[in-house]
Amino acid sequence: MEIVYWIIVALGYSISVYAIGYAFVVGLSFFNDVPYVPLERKAIKFAVECLELSKGDRFIDIGSGDGRVVRYVSGKYPRLKSCTGIDNSRALWLYSKVASLFYGRRVNFLREDAFKHEYGKYNKVFLYLTPNMMDKIIKVLIEQLPKGSRIVSSYFGTKPDRKKYSLQEKKSNINGKIRSFYILTKY
Ligand SMILES: C[S@@+](CC[C@H](N)C(=O)[O-])C[C@H]1O[C@@H](n2cnc3c(N)ncnc32)[C@H](O)[C@@H]1O
């Protein structure tokens, strides 16, 4: 019986350490211009469907937070050519790296400023950012991504630019709220 007691204590202790560590990592991100706010599971599923991923695609989540979107995509689409997350927060990058160690699939996490990365090799992009950062990063993406690339932004849209990309809005009920998802396809 004593062993059961110690297992429960060890489990409780591990869960508390994990919860405090996670809260600390999330708290730190509020010093960033764009804080870490994870997207709801249902919204991730819908946004990823809008990306129409298929074998050989190169996927990136810009501002990947704790890496949940990258892990979800790599689990659902194991035949992608690459599956990458980029975040400028050291703590979230470290968390994503450690979480993916136990995950067992090939995913790639980079700690870098999204504005300094080179996007020419990706063709499917996931965004969940503030409107201000979105407008700026879309300009960079539209310059660098190959033709036909698809970008899906959750909840925040951008100005249409008919010369450079098509813009489509899809709506979905996410936990009782009607939310918009914006799909950009580069010409
Ligand atoms: C709203 S969270 C999105 C998290 C994740 N994509 C999700 O959907 O659950 C935005 C993320 O962008 C990151 N971020 C903010 N500015 C950035 C920058 N300049 N370069 C890279 N990442 C950035 C933040 O650290 C944060 O984790």
UniProtKB/TrEMBL annotation:
Q: What is the lineage of its organism?
A: Bacteria, Candidatus Dojkabacteria
User: Which PANTHER family does the UniProt entry name for this protein?
Assistant: FI06469P, METHYLTRANSFERASE DOMAIN-CONTAINING PROTEIN
One GO term under biological process is: methylation
Database matches in SUPFAM superfamilies = S-adenosyl-L-methionine-dependent methyltransferases (SSF53335)
Q: Supply the name of the protein.
A: Uncharacterized protein
- Transmembrane feature ranges: 6-31
Q: Which UniProt keywords apply?
A: Membrane, Methyltransferase, S-adenosyl-L-methionine, Transferase, Transmembrane, Transmembrane helix
Q: What Gene Ontology molecular-function terms does this entry list? A: protein-lysine N-methyltransferase activity
